[in-house]
Amino acid sequence: xxxxxxxxxxxxxxxxxxxxxxxxxxxxxxxxxxxxxxxxxxxxxxxxxxxxxxxxxxxxxxxxxxxxxxxxxxxxxxxxxxxxxxxxx
Length: 89
What we know:
This protein starts with 6 loop residues before the first strand and ends with a strand. It is α+β, with helices and mostly antiparallel strands. It is built from 2 helices and 6 strands.
């Protein structure tokens, strides 16, 4: 069983985030907005199952996953990709 991540987490910094967004091909205006956001992440963990809520002034979204199980994620509002993620924590 993974470590206990239950709780509310506040973003402290986002160093190199703009470079990451450039590498993804995210447009200039979206990068400028996104790099100034302060996000709050709420995590509810039940064993290997995670329910997360990401909250910001730009966009809120939910993501549920199980460790080790592939799932599709939609990066709506950022670059609109639908990557598959492995659910690694």
